[in-house]
Write a sequence for this structure.
C-alpha cells in the first residue's frame, strides 16, 4: 500500500478564490480531505499592507500620525518580546509607537498617574498596558484606568459592555483576529455550529460573543453561529461529542494536543489560538498550539498553524484598533 | 390498558429535601418519569418573605427605607400591568415605591433630565425605566443614563460589562431569576450541558454568561456549565440535537411549543422564560411559554410552569436588586 503524505496547501486570502481543498483516494479507495492551511502570517501582512496605505492617506490628508504607547512593567522576557513585535508592526504600518518601560518596583498609584497623563495627552491615540502586571497590581483597575476610546486592547469594562451589547467598540485583538480570519477566509458561520474551547475574558468569551450575535447589529461583528462554550469542567467525552458536531472549532486553552483528530468533523474549520512553548524529544524548544496539527490537518477542511496562524493576526488587529482609535478621536475632536 | 395521567407534583424549595421525582411503570412495563414542577410563584414568595425580614431589620438598624422609582412612558397596557405588579411587590417587602407616569409625548431630553434628577436624589436607591419606550427614543441611551449603582434592571453598559467580566454587579432580573431557581432547587450545573435558546441581551445572553462562568469568581454567579447558545438561525434539527444532549434547557424566545418532548433528554431540567398571550380553541385568552408543557413534563426531570414559573421570580429578583442597591449606596456613603 502506497503511503501518502498529507498534502497541505498554504494559502493566503489573495488566493482564496482559486484555492480549494482537494480530496484524493488512497490505495484502499477511501477519500481523504487535505486541510487548507489558513495562513495567518500572510493574511496579517495583507492587512498591515492595507493599513499602511490607509494610514498614509490619512496623514496625507492633514491628520496627525496615529500614535501608540506601550507600557511595560518589570522584565518578563516574553512580555518584552511581545511588546517589541507590536512596536515593530506599528512602525511597519506608519503608526508612531513608543515603549514606556518601568521597573517592577513601580507602584500602582504611579502607574495610574502615568496612564492618566497618556489619557490627557492629545498626541496619544492608543494606550496598551502589557499584561501580566507584576506583583499585587489590580489588573482590572489598571485596564479600567485607560480611557475607553484609547483602550486599543479592548479590556476596559465599557468596551467589554459595548461588545456584549453588539455595539461598535474596540474588540480585544486576539478575539478580533479570529473573527477577521473567519471573514477573510470566507468561512461560513451563519447558522453553523461553532465550539469555543476556553472561556477567558480576553479571548474565549469575546469570540463566543461575536460568533453567536446577530449580523444585523451595529457592531458589524455578529456571525449568527450556534455557539457552545467549553472549558476545563466540560467532561472529555462531551468536549469530543460537541466538537465533532461543530463546523468550526476555536480553541484557546494552552493545553497542547487537547484537540485530536477524532474530535473533528471531516471538513470542519479549526482555529488554534493556543501558544505553548514546549521542549521536543530532540531537546529543541518550539511553539505549539492546542491542536494535534499533524493528525487534525488530515481531517479538517481548514486549519490555522501554530506559529503563523492567529499570533501574527493578533498584532495586525492591534494596529487596526490603534488606527480605529485615532480616527474616532479625530471625529470626536471635529464634532466638539 | 389502563390510561395513566401524568402525575405532576408542585413543590417549592421548602419541600425540596423531601420531594423527589417518582417513576412508575405503565401497563406495558416502560418506566415513566414525572417532572417535578419548579414552582416559581411559591419560591418568589419565599424570597420576598426573606427580603421582608431583611429589609425590616435593615430599617430597624436606623437605615432609611429602600426606595424605588418606576418610570413609565405612554399607555401600553401590558407595561402598566408589569409596573403595577412591581410596585405591589415592593410594598409587600417594605420597599418604598412610586410610579412616575408620563404621556407618550414626553421627549427624550426631558426623560434624561428626569433620570438625572433621580440619580442625584439621595432618597432614591433604585430607578427602573419600563421598556419598551415609545416612538423614537433611544433605549440604549436611556438605560445608560441611569446611574449604574441605581440601575436595578442591570441594563447599564457598566453593569453588563461587570457581569460579562464575572464581577459583582446588578444582574437583569429575569436572568437572575433563572440562576436563582437553579440554585434554590439545587439543580446541578457543574460540568453539565446547558442549552440557552434565545440570545436577547436582557435574558438569553446574561443567562449564558453566568451559566458558563467560573464559580470561583467574585460575582458568585458562575455555574461552570458547558453552554450552547441557540437562536433563530439555529437549524431545527440542530436545536433538537443540542437540546437532547442537554441536562438543562432554558428557553426565552416567545415561540409557543418550540420545545417539544422529543427534544428533551429524560430527566433534564427545563426552564421556560417565554410568555406569550394566545387565544385557545375555546376563545379564551391564556399565557403560554415556549415549552409544550403537557408533553415535556412527561419526559423532563424538572420543569417550570407558565404562568407561575420564571415570571413571579423576576419580580422577586427585582426587589432583591433594589435592596442590594440600597445596601451598596449606604456602604459607599459610609466610606465617603
Amino acid at each position: 500500500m502506497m503511503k501518502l503524505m498529507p498534502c497541505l496547501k498554504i494559502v493566503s486570502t489573495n488566493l482564496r478564490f482559486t484555492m480549494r481543498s482537494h480530496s484524493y483516494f488512497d490505495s484502499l479507495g477511501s477519500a481523504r480531505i487535505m486541510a487548507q492551511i489558513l495562513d495567518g502570517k500572510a493574511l496579517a501582512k495583507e492587512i498591515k499592507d492595507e493599513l499602511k496605505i490607509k494610514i498614509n492617506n490619512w496623514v496625507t490628508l492633514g491628520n496627525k500620525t496615529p500614535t501608540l504607547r506601550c507600557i511595560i512593567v518589570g522584565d518578563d522576557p516574553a512580555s518584552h518580546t511581545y511588546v517589541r513585535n507590536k512596536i515593530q508592526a506599528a512602525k511597519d504600518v506608519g503608526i508612531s509607537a513608543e515603549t514606556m518601560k518601568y521597573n517592577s518596583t513601580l507602584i500602582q498609584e504611579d502607574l495610574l498617574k502615568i496612564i492618566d497623563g497618556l489619557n490627557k495627552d492629545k498626541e496619544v491615540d492608543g494606550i496598551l498596558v502589557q499584561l501580566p502586571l507584576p506583583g499585587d497590581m489590580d489588573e482590572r483597575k489598571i485596564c479600567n484606568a485607560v480611557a475607553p476610546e484609547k483602550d486599543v486592547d479592548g479590556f476596559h469594562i465599557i468596551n467589554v459592555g459595548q461588545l456584549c451589547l453588539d455595539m461598535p467598540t474596540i474588540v480585544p485583538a486576539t478575539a478580533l483576529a479570529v473573527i477577521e480570519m473567519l471573514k477573510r477566509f470566507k468561512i461560513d458561520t451563519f447558522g453553523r455550529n461553532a465550539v469555543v474551547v476556553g472561556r477567558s475574558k480576553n479571548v474565549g468569551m469575546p469570540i463566543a460573543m461575536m460568533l453567536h450575535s446577530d449580523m444585523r447589529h451595529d457592531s458589524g461583528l455578529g456571525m449568527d453561529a450556534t455557539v457552545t462554550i467549553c472549558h476545563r469542567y466540560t467532561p472529555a467525552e462531551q468536549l469530543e461529542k460537541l466538537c465533532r458536531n461543530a463546523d468550526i472549532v476555536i480553541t484557546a486553552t494552552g493545553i497542547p494536543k487537547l484537540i485530536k483528530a477524532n474530535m473533528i468533523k471531516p471538513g470542519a474549520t479549526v482555529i488554534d489560538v493556543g501558544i505553548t512553548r514546549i521542549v521536543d524529544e530532540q531537546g529543541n524548544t518550539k511553539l505549539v498550539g492546542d491542536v494535534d496539527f499533524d493528525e487534525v490537518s488530515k481531517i479538517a477542511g481548514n486549519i490555522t498553524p501554530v506559529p503563523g496562524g492567529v499570533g501574527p493576526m493578533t498584532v495586525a488587529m492591534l494596529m487596526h484598533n490603534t488606527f480605529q482609535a485615532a480616527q474616532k478621536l479625530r471625529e470626536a475632536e471635529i464634532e466638539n
About this structure: The domain at 65-153 of chain A is CATH 3.40.50.10860 (Rossmann fold). The longest helix of chain A spans residues 310-335. The first strand of chain A starts at residue 9 and ends at 11.
